[in-house]
Predict the structure.
Amino acid sequence: MAAPSVEAPHARTYGNFRRPQSAGLGQLGTLGTAGLCTGLVLVIVTMMVAGLLPAVGLLLAGGAFLGTLSVRGRHGRTLLQGIGERAAWTQTRARGEHVYRAGPLGRVPGGAFRLPGLAAASTVTEHEDVYARPFALVHWPSTRHCTVVLASEPDGASLVDDDQIDLWVAHYGAFLAQLGDEPGLVAASATIETAPDSGTRLRREVERSIDPHAPAVARAMLGQVVDTYPAGSASVRAMVALTFSAAGRGVSRAARLVPGAPRTAEAMARDLGYRVHTLGNLLQKSGAGATRPMSAQALAEEIRTAYDPDAARVFEHARAQGDVARLDWGNVGPAAAEARWDSYRHDGGVSCTWSMTQAPRGELTSGCLAALLRPHPDIARKRVTVLYRPLDRGRAATVVERDKRNADFRVSGSKRPSSRAIADQRSAHAVAEEEARGAGLVDFAMLATATVVDPANMEHARQAVAQLAPTARVQLRPVYGSQDSAFAAALPLGIVLASHLKVPDQVREAL
């Protein structure tokens, strides 16, 4: 009698992440190819008008410029981008914009401790949703954006069946797809922050629940647990920031569309008060646990702790005493900060922020980021933020079709196309087919911030991140010359970096 064979279940895999490619010759993009053709015409005209030597000089100058566009490093950045990065940093230091001083003796008007850099002009108002829960609304005047932050308590994947994890991933994909259909939604971000646990919450819970008539042995055991358990433990926080546009809807006048006036904070609060609950419920199905909007006080504490890690003990001690350390938005920033080429010094900590330069290649499982998100003993506070920019249905179709044509051009434009070009063509066709069947399209990026209290431990934190990145199958690169802006973008504030760039995304992609 033969025993029936039971096949082991196969782990579900994910992949086919793509970066849109611009059509061009060789390593040149669309702008580089256009510059090459224009340069050749100018060389011919110069030779006909001025002679051979000026034409040769123009040819060498044009070749040197095109060389800066064709030479790329391991992170996909061109030589021209590296030169521009260094030039911008030199200009920033010359103007003294890398140093920030706040407070009564600082340079901030009014002697307040406002946020520096990109978040300096932000303001916060507090409103209530349909369930009378307070939520903070962050306003960005320069970009006309408003941000709502949701705090969640993830269930974790320990002792959870693979089928349940697959279901969570599917619901999270549905949540991202829903963002593309949300009216006015500009961007979203998911932040996972790990930090040492002071043990205040555990002590408060034990002291509140212990029975005074319990045996002495049981009370002594609980006291020992309270004293020893916080050592080496960590707290994990998860936050999702949703950024909406406050620009007014267009009004049709004289057969043309005229932008309307920006919506007020009250109008945005009434609109988002109904939608926050729905988005929170959809996010809760993805394993995020209990989801609630963050109040102005909770958000202020989170941002203040990011700039001054020692402030976390003050807030926890106040809550243990049944009090709240009131903090307004005008005083959540650091007293002093200094941006360096590869690090950021702020109040009681030193941080370094990395950006993802290449998404995971090939197939991966749902737990690929587990090691990168897990607390690390060499890093006091670690923050990993995934930035999303959902594309609406109309724009998504245009993007995938253009990407497919560019991939076809790179294969057909070469007599012997490389294996990578052929694989890239198949990947582009697969994305186009999935989008045609109704799948959503989302641009995403990743920022990872490591904060240490002692500057001498910064090198250990760098080595830790360098070891964790390969386990997640991503390439991380320090954000050289823009550490202060990257630090702020990794916070749950909903900053849309694309809205603050001097060079538009369309130009950057065409390089």
Summary: Residues 1-6, 250-258 have pLDDT under 50 and may be disordered. Residues 73 and 249 are 43 Å apart (CA to CA). The longest helix spans residues 265-288.
